[in-house]
């Protein structure tokens, strides 16, 4: 997916499906234009900052339970063949 931020008339965050570029979600909540966007290290959420001097955290890309269970590098039996 792609995430774009917009301002002035809508002050929204849009999530697009890639490569078809079909709009998946419209996130609203800021009262001024969205200026900043960053993704969390786990890739599940984003944070946006706007001209209204607020930060908003959005849980956009939540993973299913099986995808969250990553293999630990400390588990020696997972890499032995």
From TrEMBL:
WD repeats lie at residues 27-68. Pfam families: WD40. SUPFAM superfamilies: WD40 repeat-like. One of its GO terms (cellular component) is anaphase-promoting complex. GO terms for molecular function: anaphase-promoting complex binding; ubiquitin ligase activator activity. Coiled coil: none annotated. GO terms for biological process: anaphase-promoting complex-dependent catabolic process; positive regulation of anaphase-promoting complex-dependent catabolic process. Keywords: Cell cycle, Repeat, WD repeat. The keyword Cell cycle applies. It comes from the Eukaryota. This is Fizzy-related protein. It comes from Oppiella nova. The lineage of its organism: Eukaryota, Metazoa, Ecdysozoa, Arthropoda, Chelicerata.
């Amino acid at each position: 997916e792609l995430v774009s931020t917009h301002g002035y008339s809508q002050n929204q965050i849009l999530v697009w499906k890639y490569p078809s570029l079909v709009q998946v979600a419209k996130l609203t909540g800021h009262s001024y234009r969205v200026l900043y966007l960053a993704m969390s290290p786990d890739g599940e959420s984003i944070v946006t900052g706007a001209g209204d001097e607020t930060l908003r955290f959005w849980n956009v890309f939540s993973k299913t339970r099986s995808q969250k269970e990553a293999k630990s590098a400390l588990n020696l039996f997972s890499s032995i063949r």
